[in-house]
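Lab notebook page, bench 4
Experiment: in silico fold of construct C2
Operator: M.H.
Input chain length: 363 residues
Purpose: comparison with the prior construct
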Amino acid sequence: MSEPNILLEEWSPVCNMQAFVERTDSCCYFYLWVKPGMEDAVIKSCWICNVSAAPGELDVEGMKQGIAPAMPEEHVLHDTGGMDLNAESLKIVWFEEGNAAALLSEEEIICVIPGWGGYKGFSGYSRYMKGSAPCAWGLADALPVIGERVERSRAFWDWFEFEPDYWMLTQTTHMNTLEKFFGKCENYYAIDGEEFPPRALVRGTRDGVIYGITAGVSLIPMPEVEMWYGDDYRDHRRIELGFAVAASHEELCSRMYSCLSSLAAYPWKEITFLGHGHTIPSQVIKGYEAFLLVDPRLAPGLETPEYESCREDPVNLLWVVPITGAEYQFAAEHDINEMLRHVKGDFARLHVFDGVPKFWGVE
C-alpha cells in the first residue's frame, strides 16, 4: 500500500482550521482539521469517491485503526470499478463563517462538510454517494440548499478580493452609526494586529458615560451559530462588542479595551460564537470574576447604536457587563431571562459599569 497523497490543502480565511483532500489506494476523502496541533484538535472527514473497485461492505475494523474506508458498492453512484480526481480541477469554497467548506471539481460541487459535519454521526455530503452511511450522505437532496449557500459564500469572499475599498466603506458605515449614538469619536484604535479581517474599536463619551465599541467584527459571521439557532441563525451571527463605563471609572478603559480586542477574535480562533447570556471568566476588574454578554435586541430597555444590516443580516451589539463571583455563579445556574429579572436599580443602566454590582438576591 502506497502512502496517501494530498491533492489539495488550504487554510480557512478566518478560522483556525485547515482543509485538505487525500487520496489513498482505495478512495479519496475531504478533511477539515479543526485547531491543528492543539490539545482539543478535531478532524472532520467525508468520503468523496472510490478510486478502486468498491467493496461489499464497510471496513469497520480498518476504521478502528484509523484507515479511511472505501464506500461499499450499494452506496456508490460512480463506476463501481473506481474513478479518480483531477487535482488541477479541485477548488475549495469556504462558507462565510470560515468553519465549513465545499470541494468543487470543474466548478461543480462534489463534497461538502458543513458546520454541522461531525455531529451525531453525520460526516458530510458527497455527489457520488447514494443514501447515507457513516462516512458520507448523498448530496442530491441537500443540493438546492447547499448550492445556494456555496454560491453566497463564493460571492462573499469575492467581495473582499475584488472590492479594494471594502474596509473604507465599512469604516464609514460604523463611524456614522457610532457618532450618531455617542457623538464625536474621541479615539480610534486598530485591534486586528494588521491581520485579516480588519477590526477597530471606537471611543466616545455621552452624558458622563464613556463608550468603547468595536467596528468591523460583524464583517465576518460567527461559526457554530446555526447549531443553536437553527433556521434563524442569520439573525444572530454578526456581532459588535461594547463596554460602557461611568466617567468616574475611566481608568478601566485601557484594560477593558484590551479585553474587547481579544474577544473580537475569539469566535474564529476557538470555532465558537458569542451571544446573549454568555459568560466569560475574567478578573480584569478587581472584585469581578466574569463578563455577562447582553444583547439589547433581546433585552428591551437597553440602549444600542442603530446598525445598518450587513449583507442582509442584522448586526447585534453585545454589551460586556462585569459581574461578581456570586453573580457569575447565579448566571451559571440560571438562564439569561432569569438573570435579567434580578437587575437592581435602573434596568436601562445595566450595561454601564459604575463600580456597583447590578443584580440583587444572587449572593
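Observations: The helical segments are 60-64, 143-162, 166-182, 226-229, 253-270, 325-333, 336-340. The longest strand covers residues 42-50.
Next step: discuss at group meeting.
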